[in-house]
Design brief:
Helix content: 25-40%
Radius of gyration: 26 Å
Order of helices and strands: HHEEEEEEEEEEEHHHHHHHHEEHEEEH
Length: about 450
């Protein structure tokens, strides 16, 4: 994109004056951002870091996930498959200041490995985020292959070009580097707003923009609520801004939230009961799960006792809307031996699911969520866990069993869901095509 505005021309000129990535920085990245690997081939261990090979001491050693190289003493992770060439890709970033801007430089690094050879490396700067002191950000990046199946398939021969403002809504903008080069320079205003040296596993461009524009992010960082800060800035299904009064009560009384999703559902229930969200006795329960379950049961009892007829009418009214919204997914199920994961086909199923597992999938009206698909994991036709999937991002939001606890089948259920996400995406894509055709 050709720079047109004054700020775009200024950033393009400043970018051309930035120093190239130094060999010292590249050496640091090669030592710190990559794992050290080994592979078992023809009865020998091969260290892909120093090219040394040796025979295992025992058959048991061959089955370990990690081993130590007998030459370089490095702790090596075992490759699952034996092949000729091995490759690892990671991102790291450099934080600099230039012309009054905070600059986040994103470097894509490749590590190429082969048995009996020392590894070789390739580093390329793929993005620059230019953040002004008032929190406005513009990005320069390389072009990507539009026909690739991954979003970061870079064209390394292309130049860094200014991107439009809506670039911030894409996945490439949210790339989170694995590590940050320790010799960093940041704007004084970022230090004033609470930044020290750690980004707390948040993409630096997202953290810095929030610190300069959003007082909630600044408050959470200064209060050392790093978990809440990460949840606030990285999860789309968060409600901290909506629940800010309750959050401030927690901060004031130094209450540690153990499960943020359960706590947010609990606050939604307090709001439904029109309770005082400034009361620490309510907002900061000693046992969050018990407090949550009590309100769920109380709300459900009120709904049943006073509004049973209305609830039936609401279910009947919601059924056609739900069926129309999720018609492409109805009847979808995945089976793995005795475990079946299937879409909840009716609003009535939400009520029965919530009653069986004692959680709020019906009480909090999850069937009205346009962007969510709710599935039930069942064994012998009995629910064991309920799964919520984001349709826009094709990722699992939450997966909870009886009283919102994970069951012994939790990992297995997650594997089944992740393995079948392409099938869900396929149905969603097919429905969009039909809608466009009509």
């Amino acid at each position: 994109m050709t720079p047109k505005t004054i700020i775009e021309k200024q950033i393009t000129k400043l970018s051309s004056n930035l120093k190239p990535i130094t060999s010292e920085t590249q050496s640091w990245a090669e030592k710190n951002i990559f794992l050290k690997w080994a592979v078992l081939s023809r009865g020998k261990f091969h260290c892909l870091e120093c090219a040394h090979s040796w025979k295992p001491d025992s058959q048991r050693q061959s089955c370990q996930k990690y081993i130590n190289c007998t030459a370089c003493q490095g702790r090596l992770k075992m490759h699952q498959y034996n092949q000729v060439h091995f490759k690892e890709i990671e991102y790291f970033s450099i934080l600099q200041t230039c012309g009054g801007f905070q600059v986040v430089r994103i470097i894509c690094s490749y590590k190429h490995m082969k048995k009996n050879f020392l590894p070789s490396y390739f580093h390329k700067e793929v993005m620059q985020h230019w953040i002004s002191a008032d929190g406005e950000v513009r990005t320069m990046s390389l072009s990507t292959n539009v026909f690739a199946q991954v979003y970061d398939q870079w064209k390394f021969y292309s130049p860094l070009e200014i991107r439009p403002k809506d670039f911030q809504g894409g996945q490439k903008y949210r790339i989170n580097p694995y590590k940050i080069y320790p010799q960093m320079k940041v704007l004084p205003i970022l230090k004033r707003n609470g930044f020290k040296t750690s980004v707390h596993e948040i993409a630096p461009q997202i953290l810095f923009t929030a610190l300069l524009k959003d007082p909630i992010a600044e408050t959470l960082l200064k209060s050392a609520q790093n978990f809440l800060l990460k949840h606030y800035l990285t999860y789309h299904e968060q409600h901290l801004r909506e629940n800010w009064q309750a959050v401030k009560t927690c901060l004031k009384h130094r209450y540690k939230i153990q499960d943020i999703k359960i706590w947010e559902d609990y606050i939604a229930l307090l709001r439904w009961f029109k309770k005082d969200l400034t009361s620490p006795a309510l907002v900061c329960p000693e046992n969050l799960d018990d407090a949550h379950d009590r309100l769920v049961a109380k709300k459900r009892e009120i709904q049943r006792r006073k509004h049973l007829a209305q609830m039936r009418a609401e279910i009947q009214q919601a059924e056609p809307i739900y069926e129309n919204d999720k018609k492409q997914f109805l009847g979808l199920s995945f089976t793995d031996n005795d475990l079946t994961v299937k879409v909840l086909d009716r609003v009535q199923d939400f009520l029965e699911e919530g009653d069986t597992l004692h959680h709020c999938v019906f009480t909090n009206e999850y069937y009205k969520k346009k962007d969510s698909l709710i599935l039930s994991a069942q064994i012998k036709n009995r629910p064991v866990e309920t799964i919520e999937i984001s349709l826009s991002r094709m990722e699992i939001i939450q997966c909870r069993g009886l009283r919102n606890k994970a069951t012994k089948h939790h990992s297995r259920i997650l594997r089944i869901i992740r393995r079948n996400l392409p099938e869900i995406a396929k149905r969603l894509k097919k429905q969009k095509k039909q809608t466009v055709t009509v």
